Amino acid sequence: MHRHVNVSFDTYLKKLTDPQLRVVEKMELTGGEPDLILIDGAYYVIDLSKETPKQRVSVCYDLEAKQSRKKFSPESDATTMAESIGITLLDENLYVKIQSIEEIDLKTSSWLLTPNEFRKKGGALFGDKRYGRAFIYHNGAHSYYSTRGFRGYIKLS
User: Fold this and answer.
1) How far apart (Å, rounded) are the C-alpha atoms in residues 125 and 113?
2) Measured at the alpha carbon of residue 7, what is the angle toward residues 5 and 12, in degrees to the nearest 5?
3) I need a labelling partner for 73 at 20 to 30 A (CA). Which of 1, 3, 24, 41 fits?
4) Does any domain span residue 86?
């Protein structure tokens, strides 16, 4: 309840359309543990599992990165999986704001929406929380690790 002091469950239900409910179900089925959060006056349903969702790990950043791997290509990539679920990857600002509400990614990390100019140079962003602070880093978009996945959200109107 500490995540939604100013939000009632009735408000939550009124904000969700049928297509959004299906997205929330997919978020839940893939381990995201979605929750309703009010940030800067806007309602979001965000993956708030303690660690990056287990069904979404060992993925590189995007399809281009996946296809660039000559050996040991991962089964999928974060942007394609997020699109299939119907969510948007968290960006740097939203990730840091969420970390102030709930500590996440204490042992794992999550790919973050990466600006095109950075992605064109082969990199991608990811974040985690260590030493009581959220950190944003970069890595080659083609890299993948068993402890790195992705989180996403839907914004409610």
Assistant:
1) 7
2) 145
3) 24
4) yes
Which amino acid would we find at residue 94?
L
Pairing assessment for the beta strands 109-112 and 148-150 based on DSSP bridges: parallel
The tens digit of pLDDT for each residue in 9-33 reads: 676 777 788 899 999 999 999 999 9
Q: Tell me 46's DSSP state.
A: E
Whether 136 maps to a domain, the answer reads yes
Q: What angle do CA 68, 140, 54 make, to 5 degrees?
A: 90
* Number of domains into which the chain is organized: 1
Residue 126 lies in a domain: yes
Residue 3 resides in a domain: no
Containing structural domain, residue 30: 9-156
Please name the residue ranges forming H helices in 34-155: 63-68, 78-85, 92-101, 116-119
Give the whole-angstrom CA distance, residue 102 versus residue 35.
Answer: 11
Give the Cα separation of 4 and 57 in Å (integer).
28
Q: What is the largest CA-CA distance in the chain?
A: 50
Q: Could you give the 3-state DSSP secondary structure of residue 66?
A: helix
